[in-house]
Design goal:
The chain is mainly alpha-helical. Helices cover 47% and strands 11% of the residues. The protein is built from 4 helices and 3 strands; from the N terminus they run αααβαββ. The C terminus is likely disordered.
């Protein structure tokens, strides 16, 4: 669990490090990210997608990335990475989703027992959560 700024700083540092990689490593990373993105978009549509490409990417790339971030056990169960305190930007959501880390929005308040609501793993986790526009009505 972290506020959006922590995830954004992690994203910035990871993208900076990725720019220093060899062209072959970048190509493998881009392929793996595409596999994860495709997988999680299918899961949100209700399709049980566990393609060979995704499983290979998970084994060769994502497990190492998760371990390097200290999040090795997070990828094993959906719904274990949370954001709270402020809205998360869609680009940051999509970036971590492409790394096989789906961030879940958590809302709560200290006045009312702490965490109260979250978006669910699978079909319940939609990036639209972060793009909703609210209309303020005045009387």
């Amino acid at each position: 669990m972290a506020v959006p700024r922590v995830w954004e700083k992690m994203q910035e540092k990871m993208q900076e490090a990725a720019r220093k990689n060899s062209p072959v490593k970048r190509a493998v990373a881009n392929w793996a990210k595409a596999q994860a993105t495709r997988h999680h978009e299918a899961v949100r549509r209700g399709v049980d997608d566990n393609s060979l490409g995704y499983r290979i990417a998970k084994k060769l790339v994502f497990n190492k990335v998760h371990q390097a971030l200290g999040l090795g056990r997070v990828g094993m169960e959906p719904g274990r990475t949370y954001v709270g305190g402020a809205p998360l930007s869609l680009p940051t959501f999509e970036y971590f989703q492409s790394l096989d880390l789906v961030l879940h929005d958590l809302y709560g308040s200290t006045e009312a027992t702490g965490p109260q609501t979250t978006n669910l793993p699978g079909m319940g986790c939609s990036p639209i959560q972060w793009q909703r526009k609210f209309v303020v009505m005045t009387l």
